[in-house]
Amino acid sequence: MPCPTRSQHPLCRFSLAFLAVAVTTSLALTALPARASSPAAWEDQTRDVIAQCTDASQFTDAEPAGAPVLFDDEAGTTALLLKGHYPQQHMNGRAGQELCLYLRASQEVFIAPADKLTAGADALPDAPADTADDANGDANGDASSDTSDNASQASTGDAAP
Prior knowledge:
Elements: H1 10-30, H2 39-56, E1 63-64, E2 69-70, E3 77-85, E4 95-103, E5 108-113, H3 131-135, H4 144-156
Antiparallel strand pairs: 1-3, 2-3, 3-4, 4-5
């Protein structure tokens, strides 16, 4: 029922007053500063991730192979690469890796073998030495030789993905 004037109906006065309070409260709540986690809270979480992941690992000597990787809050996951030695007799104490996914909301962990992952900066490929030269032509000033080869491959569908 529409309220032609505020004084005609008690419900109209209540509705407007309620609306004013709701808007004011909403604005006040959105104006509050966001609270960031303290450094101590991050350290506690890191210790918890490491403890839970090493406990869940099949390696008896499991230890982190690097620092935990935090995904954004939408994913809510922290990843940790573990290293250790396989305890099974047939593995003869071979070194291995596992990837631990820690779900922050539920504090659950999931472990998967990760021997195919490489760890460390030394595992990253080096950039080709001629990359800068190719962008501006090679050392002899001939920029067309590679370009024509790539164009012919692209037109025949033989180009690598």
